[in-house]
Amino acid sequence: MKASVYYGKGDIRIEKVPDPEIQDPTDAVVRITHACICGSDLWFYRGEEPDWKPGFRTGHEWMGIVEEVGRDVRTVKKGDRVLAPFAFSDGSCEFCGKGLFTSCIRGGFWGGDNLGGQAEAIRAPFADGTLVRIPEQASNDERLLTRLLPLTDVMGTGYHAAISAGVNSGKTVAVVGDGAVGLCAVLSARLLGASRIILVGHNEARLKLGQKFGATDLVSTRQDAQAIEEVIQMTHGGAESVSECVGNRASFDVAIGMARPGGTVGFVGVPHVQEAIDLDRMFRHNISLRGGVAPVRGYVPDLMEQVLAEKLDPSPVLDMKVQLDDVPKGYAAMDERQTIKVMVRP
Amino acid sequence: MKASVYYGKGDIRIEKVPDPEIQDPTDAVVRITHACICGSDLWFYRGEEPDWKPGFRTGHEWMGIVEEVGRDVRTVKKGDRVLAPFAFSDGSCEFCGKGLFTSCIRGGFWGGDNLGGQAEAIRAPFADGTLVRIPEQASNDERLLTRLLPLTDVMGTGYHAAISAGVNSGKTVAVVGDGAVGLCAVLSARLLGASRIILVGHNEARLKLGQKFGATDLVSTRQDAQAIEEVIQMTHGGAESVSECVGNRASFDVAIGMARPGGTVGFVGVPHVQEAIDLDRMFRHNISLRGGVAPVRGYVPDLMEQVLAEKLDPSPVLDMKVQLDDVPKGYAAMDERQTIKVMVRP
After folding, report:
1. pLDDT, tens digit, 9 for 90 and up, residues A233-271
2. Is A289's CB within 8 Å of B271's CB?
């Protein structure tokens, strides 16, 4: 089969690789029908992931059709349309039991030295714990499938940013970052009933999409101190909930700086922060920091229900579509910020 | 009257100063009967608080007897025995309404350019919002008064460390730091029903006191990595709740390092951290960081009830007693770690 393989900074190639096979009785082999390129893929693409080695597989967001299952698999069967979260998990350990699927003791992440989702097929370990079956109603409806695809990562991650920030009915929330995750955090805040949603970003087109998604206010200055000041002013003292959806030093400073005393920053951007964050402000005003890598597996069933009920549509974040052979072009387009997020149709 | 005044690194003097007077109708003037020296006072004593200027008053932990009240004061009257938390607050703003008294819009802290508690008397702004009346039962009982005195700060701060770390019935909690706050965090964890309380510190005598206070396990290595490893081993993966009661880089690393995936670090030590904390581990395992300066005013009524019901006794942390004239000796003794915490009897 064909798969996307990493060779170094800016060097992604589509290559012939061995077909995946069942190895353990809890495995499934899935033919991939839909995949994505993620903003977090740009870290290795830009050469900023020292652990990434030539030959690593790429892609952690995918859906497909089950081709074969191991003898212990119970919840999916050949021919089922399935969605995978970006991490696999056994569904039975202490942390899976608590809903923290990304800390599964036997789990892991697609890509790297595991098989990747930017490929024609994949082996899925712990198929029962990992894969979510897509109901008949949607399984041949391309419109609904495209809406479901972001649930593999960015929609679940944006939802985790909102949940971690303590967003609920009537709350004022600021979302820092207008990438796919930030935009999905806006959708999530609306879904959770926030009364005011302030989106902080730099890109006009993305901010406009954020408005369609439910943002009530936009803050677009490139001056971080001014962004903080604007949000402090418009909220008379800061936002109760802040979703940090970028993961660098500046975005942490902005998020902590605009949080209201007693408020919570939910963070989901992979942190690439070498310097100190503003613990002093957190201390003085009892601002909490919660979040981390999103346990998307736990959110998929509810979010899928919302999509199927026509109440949630994150598909506009997928504003470019490529064939598998053109995945390298997709990386380049995302790297140059020509596109929010790329959908791959192997 | 006499009061303790800061003049620079290691230079605390007892001086004659003007008597405090009612300035606003919401003020009270209180004759101080009991005060303390706090571990956090050592920051300025050691010259590590650049904002501290010669002439600043010292002391933020005190109790006393009301001498005079302004015309708008309703809840305390002349002759009442009262306890003050280390911050004053109006009791009526948004943040006081939420229980976040230390973020009171019109509030502040004793000492510095406000009057200090290491003195014969003090003016208390917002007497109704700030002062807590000590019931008759205790007001002339020296044993109970000594037990109540730590509620002015360290007991409430240790309680905030436990509450912020999410301690409740049946939880496993690690407490980092065997100073007065850490020891009070142990008492708090027991009060809140923790089933296992691991105290991490270096001082044999303090660790023993921690055991009396309810610690079920002691970790005393001076190697941070080994302390983390010991707690990970004994808890099979980390403590669900960790109370960080020191506030330096090493203690944050230890606290985050020994938190269980999905767990919470409650931090209450004034952060003196210039470097990055381990956001990467927090991210990978969804470890939350909560806490800050303790809104002690909100905890005092409940904790006072526990003391009066003979269910709580933090007084053993007060292991040295001085007259007001000997306050400088008290600072020196705490600086040299000859004592956990000094009680002052003006």
Report:
1. 999 999 999 999 998 889 999 999 999 999 999 999 888
2. no
| Best mutation target, A98, A246, A275, A286, to test chain B (most B CBs within 10 A) | A286
Among residues A247, A266, A291, the one where a domain terminates is A291
Helices A154-164/A296-308 angle, 10° precision: 110
Query: B200 and B253 in contact (C-beta within 8 Å)?
Result: no
**CB contact residues (below 8 A), chain A span 266-295, against chain B:** 267, 270-271, 273-277, 279-280, 282-293, 295
Q: Which residues, 6 or more positions from B345, have their beta carbon under 8 angstroms from its beta carbon?
A: B33, B34, B35, B321, B322, B323, B324
CATH number at residue A102: 3.90.180.10
Chain B partners within 8 Å of A282 (Cβ): 271, 289, 292
Prediction pTM value: 0.95
Provide the ipTM: 0.96
For A136, the domain range is: 2-153+295-345
Same domain flag for B137 and B279: no
The number of residues in chain B equals 346
CA distance B21 to B132: 20
Name the residue among B322, B328, B40, B332 with its Cα closest to residue B179: B40
In this structure, are B43 and B171 located in the same domain?
no
Instruction: From residue A222, give the alpha-carbon distance in Å to each of A139, A204, B152, B242, B300.
Output: 43, 12, 44, 38, 45
> Which of the 8 DSSP states describes residue B277?
P
E strands of B268-346, at which residues? 288-291, 320-323, 342-345
> What pLDDT, in 10s, does the model give residues B114-135?
999 999 999 999 999 999 999 9
- Residues B179 and B191 occupy one common structural domain: yes
Q: Which residues of B touch A288 (CB under 8 A)?
A: 288-291
Judge if B226 and B325 occupy the same domain.
no
**What type of residue is A306?**
Q
Q: Tokens for B74? A: 């309703």
Q: Could you tell me if A42 and A125 lie in one domain?
A: yes
Same domain, residue pair B282 and B301: no
Pair B303, B242 in one domain:
no
Phi/psi-derived region of residue A247, left when phi > 0, alpha when psi is between -120 and 50, beta in every other case: left
For residue range B70-103, list pLDDT tens digits in order.
999 999 999 999 999 999 999 999 999 999 999 9
Picking from B95, B280, B285, the nearest residue to A261 by CB comes out as B95
Question: Where among B291, B312, B334 does a domain terminate?
Answer: B291
Domains identified in chain B, total number:
2
pLDDT tens per residue, chain A (346 residues)?
999 999 999 999 999 999 999 999 999 999 999 999 999 999 999 999 999 999 999 999 999 999 999 999 999 999 999 999 999 999 999 999 999 999 999 999 999 989 999 999 999 999 999 999 999 999 999 999 999 999 999 999 999 999 999 999 999 999 999 999 999 999 999 999 999 999 999 999 999 999 999 999 999 998 999 999 999 999 999 999 999 999 888 999 999 999 999 999 999 988 877 777 899 999 999 999 999 999 999 999 999 999 999 999 999 999 999 999 999 999 999 999 999 999 999 8
CA distances in angstroms from A73 to A25, A28, A126, A128, B113, listed in the order given: 7, 8, 8, 6, 69
Q: What is the CATH number of the domain that holds A226?
A: 3.40.50.720
Chain A neighbors of B271, CB-CB under 8 A: 279-280, 282-283
Question: What is the SS3 assignment for B22?
Answer: coil
> Alpha-carbon distance A121 to A108, whole Å?
18
Shared-domain flag, residues A280 and A311: no
Scan for tokens 């005011």, then name that residue. A196
Is B292 close to A283, i.e. CB distance below 8 A? Answer: yes
Distance CA A26, CA B46 (A): 61
